């Protein structure tokens, strides 16, 4: 049984969430601006923001958002945009659990597609999950898609 919990992020998680973003998404403005954007995403039904918590500490994060909803068919694309696990806690199933939780969230809100581009360092992780990306204009960043 895992010793961590995957749950929806809360406003009070900002201090634990922010350090994961420093390497992924360098802030271009004050630290207060990203906090406000974080809180607005938490309040939006178009965003899924999740954390992995272990002994009261955030050890991983995941984010996804609605990319598009087709006007005529209502088909919905969810873009998986962030998955990060503290290096000290990798190889414990946390990344897999965050990925599965986010994928399940996408399916639960009626997504037709769950899609993302993987960084070169993440490709092997997705292969271990049984997923294979396809080449795109930047071949080192393969495109992945799950249809529901």
Defining traits:
148 residues; alpha+beta; single chain; 30% helix; 6-stranded mixed sheet; globular
Structural class: alpha+beta
What's the helix count?
4
Mean pLDDT: 92
Order of helices and strands: EHHEEEHEHE
Shape: globular
Q: What value does the Rg take, in angstroms?
A: 15 Å
Spatial strand order of the main sheet: 1-2-3-4-5-6
Give the uncertain stretches in residue-range form.
none
- For the termini, the CA-CA separation is 28 Å
Q: Could you describe the largest sheet, including whether it forms a barrel?
A: 6 strands, mixed
Range of strand content = 25-35%
Task: Explain the overall architecture.
The chain is an alpha+beta fold and 148 residues long. It is globular, with a radius of gyration of 15 Å. Helix content is 30%, strand content 30%. A hairpin with a 6-residue loop joins strand 3 (57-69) and strand 4.
In short:
The protein has 148 residues and is of the alpha+beta class.
Q: What order do the helices and strands come in, and which of them pair?
A:
Elements: E1 5-8, H1 14-24, H2 32-43, E2 47-54, E3 57-69, E4 76-85, H3 94-108, E5 113-117, H4 123-128, E6 143-147
Parallel strand pairs: 4-5
Antiparallel strand pairs: 1-2, 2-3, 3-4, 5-6
